[in-house]
Structure formats: structure tokens, C-alpha cells
Amino acid sequence: MTRPRIFETIAALRKEVEIARRDGRRIALVPTMGALHDGHLSLVRSAQERADFVMASIFVNPTQFAPNEDFDAYPRDHEADIAKLAELGIDAVFLPTVGEMYPKGFATGVTVGGPARDLESATRPHFFNGVALVVTKLLLAALPDLAIFGEKDYQQLCVIRQFVRDLNMPVEIAGAPTVREGDGLAMSSRNRYLSPQDRHKAALLPVVLRDILKALDDGTHVPEALADGIRRLKEDGFEVDYLELRSAETLAPVDDATAEMRLLAAARLGDTRLIDNMAWSKPRAS
User: Fold this and answer.
1) Is 110 in a helix, a strand, or coil?
2) What burial letters (b/e) apply to 147-164, b meaning 16+ CB within 10 Å?
């Protein structure tokens, strides 16, 4: 097992990328905040299938955290993360400091709209501007041909695709399927915050989403199916931020289920906030 090359500065990373590009290699980036699990590693494997030179970034981005959120508590274990990436044979890891990404005097922001409106933004209005800023900086630092993001954070994926398209960035943005635990819970670094009791309850979230999709398949009206799902979650102790069916492409609200949809949910158990989503298409009339 070979330890990947570690780069802590943008200048050093760009030199490595320049060499790879000069050799004619297709370059992929997998941005992460660390605390890597199998969901992250699946993104790396997907990148390795589609590119010749693959790098991951590990950076807990302060601009996407509000003052009352878990920036300081967010799990960090760089050595464990690097060891997992080494097992996959990744080529490089970008491990910048906050000072490298946001040096003294930094005064620029990125403002996003479109798919960034409501859902996550209703309770975290700061979030997507912070994500857009750090992803823009990472893409400009690494200059990849391809960047891969997980579909678990589906709204984030839509936002990134939108601003990359709007800003004419020459990079392909790809999504990779959500990876789940054995009981169906979407893998997340924050799952480790759950108490044993809440971890058991958390598995109800994907069950409710699947049941809603089945109800829609069976002809239940969208508002009725969503209301029943919210009721079940609340009865089991969840505090529901949202549970909505949206256009899969734009995340715009829909009055009736048409074309490709996404069922998106965010709910809290104790101090832990869980998000999940599932794809749905309205059955064709026979």
C-alpha cells in the first residue's frame, strides 16, 4: 500500500496537476470534509473508473457552518482518512489549512440561487453560499476535468451543477448513488453523533421515504402521502424540517407528480440532523 502524495498548498497541488495533464491523464477530484466512510470511498472508486489521475480534498469548510453549528465538533482524523484513501490507491490528497483557503484579507463570496432556494436554505440560509465558495476554490485549485459528489446531498449536487454551468467552468460534475448502511440509513459522517437509541430510530427515515414512493406508485395523492410520512416520523420522535417531492432537475415545487422527481427529507433526532432523498418517476399510464 503506497501512501498518496499530500499537498497542503494550492501552488504545490497545481504543479502536480500540471504534470498529470502534460502526461495526457484525465484528472478527477473528490471533494470531502474528511471523516471518510464507505460513501466517500465509493466516490473515489467512481472517479478511478472515469479518470487516470484521482485526488481527494479533505477540508472542513468554515464558511458553510453557522456560529451555532458543529464546525469545531465536526469529526477530524486525517491519518485515518489518508490510510483509507491509500488502500484505494488514490494518487493525491489535498489537505489545506483554513489559512491557505481563506488567507488574511480574503473578501470574496459566491451567491447562488435557483436550486439553492428553500429546503436546506430554509433552516441553513448561509449554507449554499459557503458550499459554492469552497467548491469554486477547490475546482480552481485542482483544475480537474471531472469532480464527483454524492447524491445523498442531492440539493447540493444540483446547486453545484447550476453554478458550474452558470460560470462556464470547464469541469464535468458527476453524481454518485447514495451508499447506505445495512438497515438502509444513508451513510454520513454525522451519523456517529447519534446515541444508540436514536441510531436505531434513524433507520425509520429511509423506510418512510420508500413507503411514500410506494404510496405514490399506488395512486395516493402527493399531499396525502407526504402528510402521512411526516406524521409517522413525528410519532417516532423526529423533528421534521422538510419532506417534499420536487423536480429532480430544478428542485422546483410541483403541484402534481410529473416527469422525474426527487423525494427529499431533513429531520432531527436529538442533536443530529439527518438528510436523505430518493428518486421517483410517475408510473406511465397503461
Assistant:
1) coil
2) bbbbbbbbbbbbbbbbbb
CATH 3.40.50.620 maps onto the chain at: 5-176
Q: Determine if the pTM surpasses 0.85.
A: yes
Amino acid identity, position 237: G
Name the strand (E) or helix (H) holding 148.
strand 146-150
Assigned architecture for domain 5-176:
3-Layer(aba) Sandwich (3.40)
Beta strands per DSSP E along 65-127: 92-94
Q: What is the pLDDT of residues 68-77, one digit of tens each?
A: 899 998 999 9
The yes-or-no verdict on residue 79 having pLDDT over 70 is yes
**Catalytic: which of 37, 40, 78, 221?**
40
CB neighbour list of residue 32: distance below 8 Å, 6 or more residues apart: 40, 43, 56, 57, 58, 59, 81
User: How far is residue 79's CA from residue 10's CA, in Å, rounded to a whole number?
Assistant: 20
Checking if the pLDDT of 285 tops 80, the result is no
Q: Determine the CATH number of domain 189-281.
A: 3.30.1300.10
Q: What's the grid cell of residue 3? A: 501512501
Start-end of CATH 3.30.1300.10 domains in the chain: 189-281
Active site residue 221: no
The pLDDT-based confidence of 256 (bands split at 50, 70, 90) is low
Q: Read off the pLDDT of residues 21-55 as tens digits, 9 standing for 90 and up.
A: 999 999 999 999 999 999 999 999 999 999 999 99
Q: How confident is the model at residue 2 (pLDDT cuts 50, 70, 90)?
A: confident
